Every structure is written in C-alpha cells, then in structure tokens.
Amino acid sequence: SLLPKYRGAAPIHWAIYHGESQTGNTVIQMNAGVDAGPILAQQTTQIGSTETTVDLESRLATMGSVLILETMERMTRGTLDPITQNQGEMTPAPKLQKKDGQIDWTRSAIEISNQIRAMTPWPKSFTYYCANSGLPLRIIVDNASVRPVKSLSERDNSGYPGRVLIDELDDLSVQTGDGVLAINRLQPAGKRILTAAEFLRGYRVNAGSRFANSSG
C-alpha cells in the first residue's frame, strides 16, 4: 500500500474495493506498531479497471523487489531519509471476513464491480438467485462489468435493485442501486463456474427473476 493509507492485513483488497485509482509499495523502518514505521521509499502504480487482487498483487510483488534492492543500495550509501508517517492520513485495511463478499444490490454498479475484483480469490463475492419459485440459490459472481444503461426503465432504480435484465440472448445483467451490472461468469453452489450464456440456458432465467442480498 501507499502508507499511511490502507494500513493492515489486506491493503490491496481494500484499495480496489474503495475504487482507488492508484496504489503502490512502501518500504518502512520497522517499529512496534503495525505498518507504522518511518517511510524509507515508495513507488506508485495505477490500478487497472479490470485488475483483481490476484492480478495487482502479482504486479506489485515484481515492482516491490526492484524497490527493495534500490532501498538497500541507498542504505549502503547512507542516503536514506526516513519520513514519519502522517497519522492523520492513516486508513485501516482490516483482515477480510466471509461477510465482506456479500453483495448488496442497493450499491452502485461500479461499487459492486470493484467488490467482485477485490474479493478475488477470497472470500469471493456472492449473492442469492431467486427464481419465481423454489428456494434461493447461493451464487458466487466470478466476473462482472458495468454496462451502459439502455433504457429509461433501467435508469429508474427505485425499488428494483437485484432485478434481472435480459434483452439479448447471452446477456445477464442486474439492476443495481445506480446503474446496471453485466454478470459474465458465475458459480452456482456445488457447480462449476458458468458463463452467463450457460447459466441462462441451464436455469431458465427470466425477467421475473432477481438476485437478493440474503437467502431469506
């Protein structure tokens, strides 16, 4: 992370979750606090619009190895100038819990998209599919993207978060509290990951179906 922001166990996850445009690596001098020591070096990078935690973590690891070597070289030359972290700018990045993956469809499409990218590979983002009959089915949303709003009815979000929108053969989209989210890949409980087209064929989804915030 770019300390003092996102100090804690899951900085990459929370940076993506909160829609940050950039993140990076920080080398610090260790002290008794958690990620609280003086800053020795930093590097920044933009967060890609489709990057997951897995993608970004791998890229930061490669970048960080270079930063560590550069910092050690400066240390041998005696040119390091530690900077005390501004405690007023500190934000937490707590350890993830399973509940952090639960999708709340009243949030915006971009916020839910960020959540899905952030919660990969764990705890993964999940919701419940409610057909016209039968018990709710737990669904892991593996990949999704914000799509343009196509009609006035989609623009009116009042009372419709979680409503399934189907206007093309292979398109599975969901109304959110603000905007529309296209679900590209999803995994029903006990099944393999399916494309939207496979899910639509196998579960006979129609416009009366919905995704719910809970199984109740």
Number of helices: 5
In terms of structural class, how would the helical and strand content be classed?
alpha+beta
Rg over CA atoms: 21 Å
- First and last CA, distance: 37 Å
List how many beta strands DSSP finds: 11
Helix proportion = 25-40%
Shape: elongated
Largest sheet properties: 7 strands, antiparallel
Q: How are helices and strands ordered from N to C? A: EHEEHEHEEHEEEEHE
Low-confidence stretches: none
- Summed over residues and divided by their number, the pLDDT gives a mean of 93
Provide the β-strand percentage band.
Answer: 25-35%
Entry summary:
By secondary structure, the protein is an alpha+beta fold. It contains 5 helices and 11 strands, in the order βαββαβαββαββββαβ. The model has no long low-confidence stretch (mean pLDDT 93).
